[in-house]
Amino acid sequence: MPKVDATTFNLILSTLSHPVRVQIVKMLSSKGSASFTSMMNGLNLNSSGRLSYHLKRLIKSGLTVQDQETGRYVLTEAGKILASIIEPIEDLSKHKHTRPPLVRTSELQLEPFNKDKIINDLKRETGMPSRIANEVASEVERKIMNMKIDYLTGPLIREIVVSTLLEKRFEDFRHKFTRLGMPYADAANLIEGPLKAPVSSPLHIQKRAAEALLEEYTLLSERTIGDAHISGAINLSHVHDWLLKLNTIRHDIRVFLVSAPESLPLQFSARKPQSLAEALRLLLNLITAAEAYLTSDQCIDYFNVFLAPYAKGLKYEEVKNLLREFIYTLNLNFEFKGFIPSVTINLELGIPNNLSNIPITLNGRGDAYAAFADEAELITEALLDVVMEGDILGRPFLSPSIVVKVRDDPLKLKQVYPVVEKIHQIAATWGIIAFANLTLPWQIGNVNYDAHFIRLDSKWHDDWELDSLRTGNIGEVAINVPRIAYEAKGSDDTLFTLLIHSLNAAIDALIVKQRRLLNKAKEGAFPLLCFNVAGKPYFNFESGSYNITLVGLPEAIKAHTGYFLHEDSSSLALAVKLVKLAASTIDERAKDAGVRFSLAQTVTEDPSTRFAIADSKRYPDKIRVYQGTPSNPYYTLSAPVPAAAQIPLKKRIRIEEALHKFSTGGHALHVWLNEPPPPPATLIRYTKKLCESNVGAFSYSRDLTYCPSCRKTYGGVKKRCLQCGSLPSSLTYYAREITTYKPLDYWSPAAKHEFKMRARYIL
Ligand SMILES: [Zn+2]
Q1: I need a labelling partner for 288 at 20 to 30 A (CA). Which of 40, 179, 227, 541 fits?
Q2: Fold observed for domain 6-96
Q3: How far is the CA of 432 from the centre of ligand 1 (A)?
């Protein structure tokens, strides 16, 4: 701008103090030049004297000149500069007087925009000091006023605030001010979109919408572990329930059976059960109530022993009818909820030593459990006979999962041969049954397994009642081991260092879960877990276990050494070293923290696809090792050898048994049976052999094909019904998905691929 002295400057300002003169400057600016007449018309003035007067003032202050040749008026340099700033200034002053837009609030009301609300929200939600909050809110107000809109919504204002915080680099405040929820299209897809698996009720749709929000909240509220989860380095199992639920529980059903109903947090029964029928009904009520607290399994240990006193004096048929009702209800529940969560029953072959002398009083008569050995066997036999029959439609019972505990000398099997034969008949017909090998020296005290083969022993306090009952697995984190191998670039030292780093990250995440859940418990959020049993809460939080699982161990070893661990002895040695290191690191942290951290081979949630996909975006094809296809990759989930590896069963057993004792949080060897299945006698021989190995838990799994038209189940995967010729689209396939039996329709794409590739054995 040309330099002007103070007098001229004052003259300019006073010249512009009249709206007509401002109008003239604006007109000359937009048209370039104008004649006296066109100005008279354009400005709508009715007196030429007034226009002459205003033009003279403009010329005198040096903003306008008259072209001598044409007689038209034009702006001087100074006039042009002033014209360029008049409009923005006018805009500002104009908006000051404009009505603020209306805002649709979260309470679904319309009210005028008010920046004080932003100030209050910023202070309340982020702890921002008033001065800064005021600054940010004023900036947001200016932006909104400039938009010249009549109407906007609360979420939109929040987005503007968030972007303003971002511009001003207030990262922490921005994080706390983030709105949870998803884009409209995502919500529409969740609620209206195609179902990934069949559903039995609208509850599934409601649940997945709620879970999406809970997951988002969890990952934001704990940012460091949230970031590790999102990046695919670790997996917080059931992340949507991470801050609210336990993973699994082991009930001590004695507490519910013998307590007066009024001392329980919920009225499971009208009176203390006095018959097997009342006891089983109470158990069903307990299972239904406990589901709300769990992401995964509930397990009833000593099922046949603890119920034995109630079977006293009953005939076999009576017991069988009652158990049939019980199993039907469990199955209905299981199917209705989409085959999660599962219920597991642990059965004893005889009365175990630790229970023999424990007294039980029923209907006024007192005795010890040892006196009820016959009734315990009666319950086992009746239960097995119900399971063997299948349901009224000819389908297998998928709930409860049954784990048979083999204790002491495996030869003891001879004494209970009829029961043992029934068990193996079911295994050869339906699969389904699993075995816990408690004959091993490292299976300390009472040990139980649930449907996902999550394991609890009695080592933590050296007390079976504290450690294996009335507690459970509280949380589970899986580690993406192949990623560690990719990052190690062939160096063993780096591999071990990165493994320890990941284990610590997993443990830190579990500590967060522990802290948050204990707080919830203190607040009274878990009445069923915390009701008073002889001075202690029902659920023993101090004995609750926290599992860390190594996912993709086979792929990691191959990426690191060039061989799967079943292909090369030094690769196997490295895998054992890695697992031992993980176990000892976890043990140390457990001792330091006084928290029951355990290494586990099995998981209750499958992150293998998520890990493999995350890695496919980070690492080049040539260094990655995965199962499946490039578009559907996954890692081996719960085993040291991929299911697809065509190796002799003996070799599979040898590798598994080298690792089970380190994975105290859970493990299982699955023997996938080929058709035709072996006769029960052959299977019994195998069970004995496996009980002599170092394998801690194992199952036989048979694939099943069900035809709804014929109400008939066949062994193996059939391409059509052998009776009516129905094609696969109208058949249902049942098999063990990694650990539990489910219809194939409910399986993940990775599990379906693995199912096709599985090495199946003829025994
Ligand atoms: Zn058929």
Answers
A1: 541
A2: Arc Repressor Mutant, subunit A (1.10.10)
A3: 23
- For residues 549 and 738, the answer to whether their CB atoms sit within 8 Å is no
Q: State in Å: Cα 705 to ligand 1 middle.
A: 10
Instruction: Tell me, in angstroms, the distance from the centre of ligand 1 to residue 388's CA.
Output: 20
pLDDT digits (tens, 9 = 90+) for 194-243: 776 666 678 778 888 888 889 988 988 888 899 999 999 999 999 999 99
From the CA of 94, how far away is ligand 1's center (Å)? Answer: 80
Q: Measure 714 CA to ligand 1 centroid, in angstroms.
A: 10
CB distance 394 to 711 below 8 Å: yes
Q: How far is the CA of 711 from the centre of ligand 1 (A)?
A: 7
Q: Which residues are CB-contacts of 544 (< 8 A; sequence separation ≥ 6)?
A: 246, 471, 472, 473, 474, 596
Q: Which CATH number fits domain 222-247+473-660: 3.40.50.2300, 3.20.70.20, 3.50.50.60, 2.60.120.260?
A: 3.20.70.20
Would you say 81 and 1 are in contact if contact means Cβ atoms under 8 Å apart?
yes
Ligand 1 centre distance from Cα of residue 58 (Å): 100
CA 84 centroid distance within chain: 59
* 443, 447, 450, 456 alpha-carbon torsion, rounded to 10°: -90
When mean pLDDT is compared across 34-38, 282-286, 679-683, 730-734, the lowest value belongs to 34-38
What would the 3-class secondary structure string for 136-181 be?
HHHHHHHHHHHCCCCEEEHHHHHHHHHHHHHHCCCHHHHHHHCCCC
* Residue with the two structure tokens 């105290």: 664
Sorted by sequence, the CB contacts under 8 Å of residue 288 that are 6+ apart come out as 333
Residues with Cβ within 8 Å of 293's Cβ and at least 6 positions away in sequence, in order, are 245, 246, 249, 526, 528, 529
Supply the pLDDT for residue 1: 47
CA of 717 to the centre of ligand 1 (A): 14
Q: How far is the CA of 707 from the centre of ligand 1 (A)?
A: 5
272-329 pLDDT tens trace: 999 999 999 999 999 999 999 999 999 999 999 999 999 999 999 999 999 999 999 9
* Token duo for residue 302: 């000593």
Distance 235 CA to ligand 1 centre (A): 42
**d(CA 744, ligand 1 centre) in Å:** 18
Cβ(261)–Cβ(267) under 8 Å? yes
Do 6-96 and 222-247+473-660 show the same overall fold?
A: no
Beta pairing partners, 246 = 294
More confident call, 441 vs 182: 441
The Å distance, Cα 429 to ligand 1 centre, comes to 18
Give the domain ranges of the chain. Answer: 6-96, 102-179, 222-247+473-660, 249-456
Neighbours of ion ligand 1 (CB under 5 A): 707, 709-710, 721, 723-724, 726
Domain 249-456: CATH class, spelled out: alpha beta
Do residues 671 and 700 make contact, with C-beta atoms less than 8 angstroms apart? Answer: yes
- Which has more confidence, 62 or 104? 62
Strand partners, 346: 403
713 CA → ligand 1 middle, Å = 9
How remote is the CA of residue 395 from the centroid of ligand 1, in Å? 13
